Amino acid sequence: MGMAGRSRGGMRTSGPAFVPEDRTLCPASTETALDDVHEGTNAGRACSVISGTLCKGVVQGTFANKCKNCEICDFYQLVRKEEGPNFIFSILLLKLLRKYPFLLARSNSQAGPGIAASKY
User: Fold this and answer.
1) Is the separation of the CB atoms in 100 and 22 below 8 Å?
2) What are 32-46's pLDDT values in tens digits?
3) 62-106: per-residue pLDDT in tens?
4) DSSP letter string over 47-97?
5) In the beta sheet, which residues pair with residue 54?
6) Is the torsion defined by CA of 45, 26, 41, 97 positive or negative?
7) Could you give the CA distance from residue 86 to residue 117 in angstroms, rounded to a whole number?
8) Alpha carbon of 11 to those of 1, 32, 68: distances in Å?
9) What is the DSSP letter of 34?
10) Strand partners, 58
């Protein structure tokens, strides 16, 4: 899942959401609707559009509350640089989440994979 937070296999050892004493899963690590976006697992490399993500050990709010911080986040900038012209901006990811709300229900129940980036 990149460095965005806690993944299902255990706690991360680096990245913006690393908090060694906390074993909480970051919502980006379980959000399957954005699986494969920016070549990440679940929403791990698209965490900027997921509400309640962990960043530097602090639970973040909604996209509207955190978007300015995400845009200057080192991890966000790294993903943007690595993806280059393939980077999918937040507005498109938010539209995708709204267009396919059934995927959000699937991700909450862990019923299967979400939409692959190649389907955009």
Assistant:
1) no
2) 889 999 999 999 999
3) 999 999 999 999 999 999 999 999 999 999 999 888 876 555 444
4) GGGSTT-EETTEE---HHHHHHHHHT-HHHHHHHHHHGGGPPPHHHHHHHH
5) 59
6) negative
7) 10
8) 11, 18, 26
9) G
10) 55
Those residues whose C-beta lies under 8 Å from the C-beta of residue 45, and which sit 6 or more positions away, are: 1, 2, 4, 37, 38, 39, 79
DSSP letter, residue 109: H
Looking up tokens 């955009």 gives 120
Structure tokens at 103: 């995927």
Residue 117 structure tokens? 């980036």
* Terminal C-alpha separation, the chain: 20
